[in-house]
Amino acid sequence: MAPRPDNRLLDAPMVPVSCEACGAQVEARKSSWEQTSIQWHAEGLRTCAERRDASRAERPAPFTGCRSLTTAIGQAALRGRIRVQSEEADATDRPADGL
């Protein structure tokens, strides 16, 4: 049996978003206000200042994400650059900080 194709990106493709702090670029998609999918590429990983700082720490920990980029993605969603898939929630349910 062949694997079922993943068609989720047909209706809501990933959208390029750049971090306002360091310029790292990723592709992002929001299924809901609480759930975000992020596709990192090699250039973005090299550019991300928070990732670089985490790897240089005295006791490096796994990189779990960039706060500045999370904010940029949230702002892009609030401004309508990224479509939020589950728009059943009223606009008043949107987080005030755009995350």
Descriptive overview:
With 99 residues, the protein is α+β, with helices and mostly antiparallel strands. It is built from four helices and three strands, in the order αβββααα. It has helices at residues 8-11, 42-47, 49-55, 67-78; strands spanning 15-18, 25-30, 36-39. The chain has a three-stranded antiparallel beta sheet with strand order 1-2-3. The longest helix is centred in the last third of the chain and has 12 residues, at 67-78.
Concise account of the structure shown:
The protein has 99 residues and is α+β, with helices and mostly antiparallel strands. It is built from four helices and three strands.
The chain-level mean pLDDT equals 84
Order of helices and strands: HEEEHHH
Q: What portion of residues belong to β-strands? A: 5-15%
Which structural class fits the helix and strand makeup? alpha+beta
Terminal CA distance reads 40 Å
Provide the low-confidence segments as ranges. Answer: none
From the alpha-carbon coordinates, what is the Rg to the nearest angstrom?
A: 15 Å
How many helices? 4
Helix content: 25-40%
Query: Strand sequence of the main sheet, in spatial order?
Result: 1-2-3
